[in-house]
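Schema walkthrough. Field components (list of strings):
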Amino acid sequence: MGLTLRSVGRRAAADSGFEGAAFRTAALAGNPNVGKSTVFNGLTGLHQHTGNWSGKTVLSAAGTYQYGGRTYRLVDIPGAYSLRAGSAEEEAARDAIALGGADLVITVCDAGALERNLNLTLQILEVTPNVIVAVNLLDEAEKRGIRVDLEALSRRLGVPVVGMAARRGRGLEDLRRAVADFTPREYAYTVKYGETIERELNGLELRLENLLDGRINPRFAALKLLEGDGGLLAAVKASLGLDLAEHPEIKPLLEASLSRLEASGLDRAGLRDELIAGIYRSAGSICRECVSGGQTYDQRQLRLDRLLTRPLTGIPVMLCLMALIFFITLKGANAPSDWLYALFEKLGDAMSRGLLALGAPGWLHDALILGVWRVLSYVVSVMLPPMAIFFPMFTLLEDLGYLPRVAFDLDSSFRRSGACGKQCLTMAMGLGCNAAGVVGCRIIDSRRERLIATVTNSLMPCNGRFPILISLITIFMVGAGGLLRSALAAGVLTLFIVAGVAATLLLSRFLSRTLLKGDASSPTLELPPFRAPKVGEVLVRSLLDRTLFVLGRAAAVAAPAGLLIWLTANVYIGGQSVLSLVTGFLDPVGCFLGMDGVILTAFLLGLPANETVIPIIIMAYSASGAFSGGAGTAALRELLTANGWTLTTAICTCLFTVMHWPCTTTLLTVKKETGSLKWTVLSALLPAALGAAVCALIAALSHLFCA
Amino acid sequence: MDLTLDSLPEGGAGIVSRVRWGGELRARLMDLGFTPGARVECLFSAPSGDPRAYLIRGSVIALRSSDAGGIQLN
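Field assembly_structure (string):
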């Protein structure tokens, strides 16, 4: 769920520069999902989000650490399979390594797939010989019978090699020492591409050497010129002011080289193939010398994989897991929620007495206690316990490597909707926080499919909306208490999430047939090996990083919102409160949608934070005199039924909770990510239109059958 | 021989001979290790039979059948 202080907090402000007063700056590169973020966290003590799937690091993060009395700066670069940019992350990685100006690059490799990882490492060695290779996940590889001869690898590559199992803290000290002891070098291993290509490379290299003056490796520049890597050449032009391809000294040379190559049967496409094949030939020969064992896939992994992907078990296991997580969340959160609410009420009473004793005016007392405090205490007591249970459990699944299997299982459904299975990963993030989900959409390579995932993300109810669903399901659909009822409630909640998934697919299909026409792309999804989650760390991290952060943000919005709502309920125009004027105005629309004016107003006023929807409803109803105090389940039931709520109202409100506009934070994130007002507006309007249509339909059907 | 990756049965293996796709997909597949001479094994399929997961150079990569169809095997 990519939802941490780092991914959405202030500190996440894209800090990718290499400046600063550090003794040495190292860039941390590697394939996706090789434990780069774990290494980063291990070295810096920061808490970049980790999880077992590709593409968690969507922003470059930077941090520092001390070693031997000196400060070292570490920049975490997004995961990339290659420096030939295919995705936005790979482009960022390429530019950071080629032009970022770090003193050295640490390439983190997966010991279990070293050959594939060397593809990137060898490309990085073409940029700079100042590389340390960190062979990570050695423990996992050993379990699969794979042994890596680190010394031989270091001899072969001509750079330091450090063996690591970063999740267990193994090798971190060695890596720190290697970075501290690193001496810049002139040469390291260089891939040789065969005579024809080498001849042209050497010719270009000689001329480029003077021109580039050590700012970029001339051999790398020559390779990119021959390949015709427009993106990198543009980045070079932007950063050095040097248009290599059009340079009067280079252009004729390059054209001559290209035509000679073409004459020998290598056009640009053929050349690119030959370059990749050359790198893999080198990687293969290095691995034959340095790696033994591990030719087959682990049989236990395979059995588990097949269980999770078979037609008869794949989807049912997924639904059961989801329902189980909800069940544990619901069951576990009940008592602490009541307890917290009681505590807040006591504190509120004390504050109330204190305020009155101080002689505070009545309006101030009411605004603070009935407005700010009551909304705040509702939000905290209703949100905190479920989150504190849900987040860690979800993180465990994420750590295990289950999420990519879900994306794999559901890919065909998304393909039929013109989208891609990776959208599931962004939806999973959305369950935590839609703003994080929208940022996460960067893992989708195709722009069209990324926009689809962005616009539909709010159809996954975030943690701020869970409490609405849970309360209404408990009150109107299954009743409170008992193991069976909790299980039933979890089942119903799962159904609403499934409705959200169905809505996502429907809206995705609509978009890919209308505004975002185009064919489904060709996603390549890596399925990482399952890893035993580190339970202790997951608990601590998800509590501190996610739960408290999300709660803090919700509370920061809830407090002023509480004041604002209290004001609208207590400022009168012509004998009617502003709130009741608005709710009265919206009542016909609300009723048409199976709800009422109050509920619709609550959703509108809840735009800054959905957590405040229920408190607004309570305040609006109680302003009309029906509220007997307290917001426990029983009191809430009494209040809602007294105001005309039926099962239909509850169902429509739940569905509208799942399908309406996202909160302002999410909308701002959409604006930032897409850079387009149109898509920002559409991400609010389209889900809301869909929700309104569904609610209107249910309301009409209910009138038809229940009247 | 015109055997393509998508026709490989579950549990079957082969050697990549050629990637028929061009452009970005070609570069991506080759970067993932689908280069001529590489051994590839079909491990398991999604519930609908598509996509399928392939073991290539030590890692597991899921490809849609339509995309796997452009990878020829010996």
